[in-house]
Write a structure and sequence with these properties.
The chain folds into two domains: 220 residues, no CATH class; 66 residues, no CATH class. Helices cover 45% and strands 4% of the residues. The protein has a two-stranded antiparallel ribbon with strand order 1-2. α1 packs antiparallel against α2, α3 packs antiparallel against α8 and α11 crosses α13. The longest helix is centred in the first third of the chain and has 20 residues.
Length: 304
């Protein structure tokens, strides 16, 4: 769903505008290349997701010359009630980059709300270079205008601290120390017991949060939770960039990966897989040198 850093930026902006349009309260979010998670207080969850999806799909299909629906037909919704349930859900949503093996701490992963809370106490109160108002339309859905009080960074991202209700979330975590503890806390039975004692409702767990995410492995996520990141493994964004810049031009002079017929995408995938296997030995100048991927990731980044 997101092939570049710009796509992730636009994806968050589409969510932010949907939150504003539906008068909802965004508490936390985390964007991955294949999906995103958000913790929201809203009276119209279906409408919020519809607005977000519609705006982003229009952008994505226009950019990549693609047609049709993007993502699953219906979103996965999980009702959360209670302080411990909400805190646990926020933990898992914020720690997306950690659980998917893309970062050694939640704060390292740029495409989540980890760095939006307790900014003064954690030494993160700086304001990035802002984009002039006249240029903001480049990073917004078609015909949408961002209210002037909401700021946009130079990379086009609406500042998370302007959209997210940080004060409400900070009350849930109570102190910066507890927030840091929760971001470094390993999943254990105590997290389940706290929720069960709270109100008897089913506890929020990693399995429930990630329900329906294709290829998600809880056992791997719990290993990644300890901060064990293999830096040689390509991220989806890196592999998509290599495909689009280094491999696609061999098959297509102009266009996107979606302009290639499926059989040619499969041929490109075979070439990519062969090059990857021999990158350590023969292709010293290859962008794949010293990096790792797998067949599932190649298929995903080739949209096959």
């Amino acid at each position: 769903m997101y092939r570049s850093e710009e796509d992730l930026v636009i994806g968050f902006n589409c969510l932010a505008l949907a939150v504003l349009e539906t008068e909802s309260r965004l508490l936390a979010e985390g964007f991955m290349t294949t999906h995103n998670h958000k913790l929201v207080q809203t009276d119209c969850s279906d409408e919020l997701v519809r607005k977000e999806r519609y705006a982003y799909t229009r952008y994505f299909n226009s950019k990549y010359k693609r047609k049709g629906r993007l993502g699953e037909k219906k979103p996965f919704l999980l009702d959360v009630e209670g302080v411990f349930h909400t805190q646990t859900a926020a933990n898992y949503v914020i720690k997306q980059g950690l659980h998917h093996g893309l970062a050694s701490t939640p704060f390292e992963y740029a495409h989540c709300s980890a760095n939006a809370f307790f900014r003064n106490e954690l030494g993160k109160s700086f304001t990035p270079e802002l984009l002039p108002e006249c240029s903001r339309y480049n990073y917004l859905p078609h015909c949408c205008k961002l209210p002037v009080q909401y700021r946009m960074a130079s990379n086009g991202l609406i500042l998370r601290e302007d959209i997210i209700d940080t004060a409400y979330v900070e009350e849930i975590y109570i102190t910066p120390r507890n927030y840091l503890y929760q971001m470094n806390r390993l999943t254990d039975e105590r997290m389940v017991n706290e929720q069960v004692k709270e109100n008897g409702l089913p506890p929020v767990t990693l399995e429930r949060i990630e329900k329906g995410v294709q290829g998600f492995d809880v056992r791997s996520a719990l290993i990644f939770e300890q901060g064990r990141v293999d830096r040689k493994v390509l991220s989806d964004i890196e592999l998509c960039r290599i495909i689009d810049e280094s491999y696609l031009p061999r098959f297509l002079e102009n266009g996107t990966i979606y302009d290639l017929p499926t059989e040619k995408r499969q041929s490109l995938g075979n070439t990519l897989w062969t090059d990857c296997k021999h990158a350590f030995d023969r292709y010293r100048t290859s962008p794949l040198s010293g990096r790792k991927t797998d067949a599932g990731q190649i298929r995903r980044c080739l949209a096959i």
